[in-house]
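Re-run with default settings, no changes from the original entry. Doing this only to confirm the output is reproducible before filing.
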Amino acid sequence: MYVHYLRLLPMLVLLLAASCTNTASREECEQACKHQRQLQKASGQEDLSGGQKQGSAGLKRQLGTLEKVLAGELSRLDVEQQGRLEKAASDEERERIKEDYDNRIEAKQKEYETKFEDIREQIDEADDSTKEPSAVKEETAELEDARVVSDCADQCLERETSRDKITCRVRAANLEQFKACR
């Protein structure tokens, strides 16, 4: 009875060996990951992970929005002042109302000016970071590429990706073909 099982043992070993050799090696995974990174760069879909600061364009939009909010606040105060001036009985009361609203408008402008200065400083920092020397930018990009490729290769090995899938990915001409590999 055990003789029948002994006959199956060599076949099981061969099947296990065949299934293990079908998984891609680290070098093959790295090659596919480098190719994926190149395709991402070529299509403009780079994976920009990491805590990067908001770009100056976004900050400029935020500055414009803040200016509109301030204009709305000042307009609201002006309308409120006009309403109170119409109800004022004497010139003395009108002068007091004008002085009160002038002080409120000045306080509101000072409040927003500090916010404007903070955003302008952030815009300057963002602009300065884009003027970074090209050698430093290239080195940083190379380090980022190496990190991304290494992480990708680690995931490839953890998922036990097949050689067929890796071969398909390396031959892919664009990201759509790369993602379609099964």
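Residues 47-53 have pLDDT under 50 and may be disordered. The chain has one domain: 24-180.
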